[in-house]
Amino acid sequence: MIAEAVRRSALADYRDRFAALTAASGRELSIRELPFVSQVNLRADPNNADLMHRLAAALGFPLPVVPNDVASREERRALWLGPDEWLVVGPDGQQETLEQALRTGLDGAFGSIVDVSANRTVLEISGVWAREFLAHGVPIDLDARSFGPNRCAQTLLGKAQAIIERRVESAFHLYPRTSFAGYVADWLLDAAAE
Question: What is d(CA 66, CA 81) in angstroms, rounded to the nearest whole number?
Fold first, then answer.
């Protein structure tokens, strides 16, 4: 008998609890895992205009160079993580496609491309109470005037490091490391119960 690999998301056991919270809040607060998001870490020189142009052509949009900005096109997004670092995300199963696009853009230039898809899971927190709810657990200002749509930051939620991305006015994506995913899910559910 040959064992078959089964893919299981970091928060599969929380699916029903998240759904119950969403229903109990009348959908004013919704939490759900977006499992298996493709995530590729890119390091490259943003001061090399030719390189940035090639990467933009390969991805279909320019990488953000303003701190904590997010750039996107269709289902691909690039989150600014540092002066020469981005997290490029896309749909499930697109890691190799993203990596190849970035390699094409690098075209031999000095840089780094690493598939980090298994490193983090993604939680979507949405609804009219999403900002206020998350504001209780993160030390950054989530007001739309300072942290509006298409913004991101590396921060703490409770005691766990995470990337937070504001997608639209009332929706956030939270990227905790999979090793802290259970802690983050429990924190969110406990905070919602209060």
Answer: 10
- Residue of 163, 156, 166, 157 lying closest to 185 (CA atoms): 157
Question: Which H or E run includes 71?
Answer: strand 70-73
- Residue 188: strand, helix, or coil: helix
- Do 42 and 111 fall within a single domain? yes
CA–CA dist 168, 81 (Å, integer): 19
Measured CA to CA, the distance from residue 84 to residue 133 in angstroms comes to 32
pLDDT of residue 5: 74
Shared-domain flag, residues 144 and 182: yes
What's the rounded Cα separation, in Å, for the pair 146 and 111?
31
Helix (H) or strand (E) holding 106: helix 95-106
Does the pTM of the predicted model rise above 0.70? yes
pLDDT score, position 194: 79
109 lies in the same domain as 61: yes
Structural domain boundaries, residue 92: 38-115
For the stretch 112-165, pLDDT in tens is: 999 999 999 999 999 999 999 999 999 999 999 999 999 999 999 999 999 999
Q: How far is CA 5 from CA 14, 42, 115, 122, 159, in A?
A: 21, 29, 20, 22, 33
